[in-house]
Amino acid sequence: MDIVGACRAFVSVSERGSFTLGAAAARIPQPVASRRIAALEQHLGARLFDRSTRRATLTPFGRDMLPSAKRLVRLAEAMEHDAERAKRTPLRLAVPDTCTTRDLALLDADARTHAIYLDLHTAPPAERAELLRSQQVGAAITEVPPDEGHWSVPLGLACTAQPRADTLYIETLRAGRGGRTARRRRIWIQPEDDVPHIRDRIMRTRDAVGLQPAQVAVAPALTSAAAEVYGSTDLLLASPAQARELDLHWRPIGELRLVRTFDITATDGDQAHRIRAALHDAIAHCLGAAG
User: Fold this and answer.
1) Dihedral sign computed on CA atoms, order 262, 198, 94, 243
2) Which of 44, 54, 167, 209 is the most exposed place for a label (fewest CB within 10 A)?
């Protein structure tokens, strides 16, 4: 039996001296209140109300049980209040610092429609992993190898001048013969892509096509990488969405296919599954993910 519901009906009827008024106060039909109280009487083994009068008059046993019933109802109400407050406790989520303020706000708004409340922290990949490891956040959008991710973001090269070709080849950055002293064009890797499955592949391609080591560099921040590109003919390794935001021209790389791949990692596996299921599309939009 629903002992809490029965006690609520018992307390409400006793306070109003009427099954009809008590049921209305408890927001249940009068027959339901009567059945719950009858079930409680059967459970306790004695009558709570004297039904020989028109009013709902407590029996001596009912008067003795009323304080305990009130305590149980108060505890249940306190538990329901605590549960509602716990559900609204924000989940601290570490996200890539490449996400724009607008896209993060849209993610937060979408999460609230699923009763998920987020406290968002932007950080580069290594810092997100450390925040999760040290339990400073409850979950993080982490970069993972391509075959392990739920979201995929294509990467290419972006520059200020619109390229003539539909694809950019890294080998075209190789210096010509004749000992030219002009500054060689460089590819800038932003911190979000400073992970082995991206950084190492482009470094290997650099070496394979004969570029100088300095022609592929990791920038300390996306802002500084973009500044280098704006002030030169250099190239930025970026997603199409980032190129649009920075007003750069984006092309895929001819020699290799690079992607950022992300997953949700959480201290609670059920929480990670819930975020993936409820916020899959919103996270994809925030990351600029394909499909």
Assistant:
1) negative
2) 54
Tokens at 80, concatenated? 């329901």
Give the count of alpha carbons within 13 A of 269, CB side only.
Answer: 0
Please tell me the distance from the alpha carbon of residue 132 to that of residue 154, in angstroms, as a whole number: 25
Spatial distance between the Cα atoms of 136 and 257, rounded to a whole number of angstroms: 34
Distance of CA 122 to the CA centre of its chain: 12
Rounded Cα distance between 256 and 239, Å, is 15
pLDDT of residue 90: 86
Q: What three-state secondary structure class fits 50? A: strand
Q: Which domains does the chain have, with CATH numbers?
A: 3-87 (1.10.10.10), 97-147+262-287 (no CATH), 148-260 (3.40.190.290)
The span from the CA of 202 to the CA of 180, in Å, is 24
Report how far apart, in Å, the C-alpha atoms of 257 and of each of 163, 199, 217, 286 are. 19, 12, 19, 22
Mean pLDDT per block of 10 residues along the chain (291 residues) reads 92 92 92 93 93 85 94 90 74 93 94 92 93 94 90 96 94 69 84 94 95 95 95 95 95 95 90 92 90 52
Collect all residues with Cβ–Cβ distance below 8 Å to 112 and sequence separation of at least 6: none
Helical ranges in the chain per DSSP H: 3-16, 19-25, 30-44, 60-87, 101-113, 125-133, 196-209, 222-230, 240-245, 269-287
Residues contacting 101, CB < 8 A, separation 6+: none
Q: Is 138 helix (H, G, I), strand (E, B) or coil?
A: coil
